[in-house]
Every structure is written in C-alpha cells, then in structure tokens.
Design goal:
Elements lengths: L15 H11 L5 H15 L1 E2 H4 L8 H7 L1 E2 L1 H14 L4 E9 L7 E11 L3 E5 L11 E3 L2 E3 L10 E2 L9 H9 L3 H5 L10
Parallel strand pairs: 1-2
Antiparallel strand pairs: 3-4, 3-8, 4-5, 6-7
C-alpha cells in the first residue's frame, strides 16, 4: 500500500498549499468516509474542469491544479490523490477508455481515482465535475461515476496505478491551452 500513500512529482502533497488544504478538509471529519467525501466533493465542485469552463493554463501537478483551480479529469484526479494521500488514505489512479463522441472512434482516456476504504476495499470515485447529464457521487458501496461504458470498444481499465500513465502526462505537459489538449486527448491501444 505504501506506493498509494507516497508523494510524487505529480501527486505533490508535500507542497505547502496542498498540505494545508488536506489539513483543512480533515478538520472536523467524523470518520474515514466523511473525510474521503469531503476531499472528493472539494475537488469535484471547487476545481473547474478545464474544457467545461474553457480555462487555461493546462495543469498536471496537484499543486498547480489547486493554484489555478482548474484541470482536466486527469489533473483533478492528481489533486484528489494528493489530498487523500496526505491524510493517509491509500489512493490510486484509474482510467476508462471512452468514445470522444456519442459512439465509435476516436477514443480517449478518462481519469478518475480508486480509494481504499477500510470497511470496503478499493472503491472508484470520479471528481471530474458534474454538469447536466453527469452526476458523479461518493456513495459506497455503489459507484456513481461520471461516464458509463456504452459500447464494445469502450473499457473500464481494471488497473489501479500509483502514478499517472505516460500518455496522460505527455499530453498535459506538451500543451499550454485547454483547446490544444481537447484536440489531442490521450488514448491507449487495446487488444480486441
């Protein structure tokens, strides 16, 4: 579990602002689930999704997501992992492969988290940000993710990663503007 509790370049909870946020979110939490819910709802509701709000700059590191209060789903998952790990809650990164449009190619990755709850085990949460048609919630044992798998070439990738996938980092670090990322969303090839 240690790798899901450790800071890193992108999950930089040793940053003073991220650490302060983690402490603030933990204050008065009545239980582990209450703490996880508070962290999840902060990132979901207080950090604006870059594409939904047409916001720059493109962020990747948790500290930058917090500083600029914006990020794509991937970056928001880095911040959520950071505040949870800072509070000693094991947290990993998960991905879905989804159609960019209503169905069919092109496809892209969607970033979310898995958190280890002592009374449940691994549980996926999606802090992407709600809007009409998207209602992601923290309601264990049921998952309430932003996007369902709708067609044959979409996938819930089963792995839980301690660090972001390379294609995600490459896209977020290569582009400065939200529309550039939107035009180059990361994907991974899948064998069918």
């Amino acid at each position: 579990m240690q790798r899901f509790l450790s800071p890193s370049k992108y999950i930089d909870f040793e940053d003073s602002q991220v650490a302060a946020l983690a402490r603030d979110l933990a204050r008065d939490a009545s239980s582990e689930r209450d703490l996880v819910r508070r962290c999840f709802e902060f990132v979901r509701d207080e950090i604006r999704h870059s594409s939904d709000f047409k916001l720059n700059p493109v962020t990747c590191k948790a500290s930058d997501v917090l500083r600029y209060r914006t990020g794509y789903c991937y970056a928001k998952s880095h911040l959520l992992a950071a505040v949870l790990r800072a509070n000693r809650i094991p947290t990993g990164l998960c991905y879905q492969r989804l159609s960019v449009g209503d169905e069919g190619a092109p496809y892209c990755l969607h970033g979310l988290n898995a958190v280890y709850l002592q009374d449940h085990g691994w549980y996926r949460i999606d802090a992407r940000g709600n809007k009409p048609g998207i209602d992601a919630r923290f309601c264990p044992p049921d998952e309430a993710l932003a996007f369902p798998i709708r067609e044959a070439r979409e996938r819930d990738l089963p792995e839980i990663w301690a660090e972001p996938l390379a294609p995600v980092i490459e896209v977020l670090e290569r582009h400065d503007r939200y529309d550039q990322v939107l035009a180059n969303l990361p994907d991974v090839p899948l064998a069918f």
